[in-house]
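Please go through the protein record below and explain what the tokens say about the fold. Record follows.
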Amino acid sequence: MALAAKMSVHEKKWIDTIDIDKLQIELAEKRIMIGFFNNFDIHSDSPLIPAVQYFSAKSFFSNYNFKSDDLIDEPTAVMWIENCRSIIDKAYYSIRTVPEMDISTSTISEKDFNKIMKLKGFNVSIKASSKELSKGQVILFLYDFIKSRL
């Protein structure tokens, strides 16, 4: 509540009108837990911590076991990108939780991910050193993208 009050004073707005996304990013950046995960140390210096915390508050994940090294499947990538559109448009009601999937046949490449971003109206591209993308690479990219749009 103190951070929200501070933002309210800084932005010269009533506390109930501050941008919830900016507040959640501030909380996540300060390593204040806003979502629980079994395998995450909130005080780790990993840049993934704020990203996973932020998106957990947006119901991106179907369980408490985010595995950043797991490869991402195409349906998950598409839904995460669509969810980002919902966040940017403040259409939170349309955010969908992604069920865990068997990714043995549907992993996604950097090239295909970037095509989907473009199809969804985003003119940004992920740059990756690996052929297939991991959940960690994608969630960090999307977090940085969302932060740049707020």
